Amino acid sequence: MKNAVHSDIFGRLLKSKGLFVDREAMRPTYTPGILPHRDDEINDIASVMVPALRGETPSNILIYGKTGTGKTAVTKFVGKQLLKKGKETGKHVNFIYINCEIVDTQYRILQNIANHFINDWSERIPFTGWPTDEVYTRLIRMIDKNGGVTVIILDEVDKIKGDESLYSLSRINNDLEKAKVSIVGISNDLKFTEFLDPRVRSSLGEENMIFPPYDAGELQDILKQRVEIALKPDSIDEDVIPLCSALAAQEHGDARRALDLLRISAELAERSETPRISRRFVRLAQNKIEIDRILEVVRTLPAQSKTILLAILLQEKQNKKAGSAGAITTGEVYEVYKNLCKKTRTNSLTQRRVADLISELDMLGIITARVISKGRYGRTRDINISSSSDEIMAVLKEDDAFKELSNYKIRGQTRII
DNA sequence: CTTCCACAGGAAGGTCTGGCGG
DNA sequence: CCGCCAGACCTTCCTGTGGAAG
To answer: Which residue of A13, A72, A267, A293 has the fewest C-beta atoms within 10 A of its own C-beta?
Structure first.
């Protein structure tokens, strides 16, 4: 029996009636053919770029907007249309997209742009080795040789290290003989230009554009559109899309967030072999996203904060066993923390510092720490762990520093019953 | 009403790292 | 390469305080 079940696992999974037709359509990287509620933005950008089709230099644009407001999608969309029209009308137009979060140094940006013009692999500029100005002059020559108008998209411009890159790019037209370059910068930090060289600022921001967040109704339209492409028909309850939209709208109208919520709901429903996505799965998905976020934060916590968090978890268990409901105080945590430090042979911080780290954990949303007064018995923080303490514990146990503590018992736990 | 616990949380100063201009 | 400085990280010392107990 067992073998019958375990043989051909993938075959079974493939055959099982999944909910997805095209999973990709629900990923944030997917660019749909129609962008709902972004007509104004599309037109604005297109009207700035249209000179490219007449062989003139379009103004540089800076686009602002929070995450999930469609900046990247709209820009890429306009870029595609521009290329298409360029081909139709026989105008030479180039369109280069660079994500500066990944490509973040001057050398790599120049290298990326340059390699866009090279088809022959052997002529490519190497990842490293050349002087930056050599790459630059080579790039200038290539753009000029290629001719036409080149539009360069710098997504997440604020992530670029150092400002020479932007300075050289913003002045690139001065070094070109006949070709023309226009730059579109995308940033989710509204104050990003404050730290820029004024010359770069005025050059890059010839045109400024702000993408407003989506409201719940607009998010619904976006989700509906994707659902039609991504999911099998009739696999979703009516009230699921409004719920996802409302939840995401509360969170700054982030379309990426709404899509993630819906996609994970669908994945969870699929995994539980339910034929339809219902509200229940949205709640589960929301929970999963939150837990994943918390676990990721915990994983990257500095060692001392991890120790403090472990102390809180241990103390919570201890208190629960003793029957005294939850409520952990700073003093209790500090005692456990000091013992942990002794066990791991690390030196402990002062209570003052630990108190600050505890409120940091609170701000990260891993724990909640309210200040309460217990009258005669002093004023302290009332510390509670956010629901998923077991998962957090599991993540903490991954840490080498706590490996040897697996059988550790809190000292002095002989209690008066 | 006063007392007084068990901290909160501000201020100031020490130490260490890493970047940057000379 | 060196000295300088900013900023992160901690410590020391401090004053302030909500409210149950007396």
So the answer is: A13
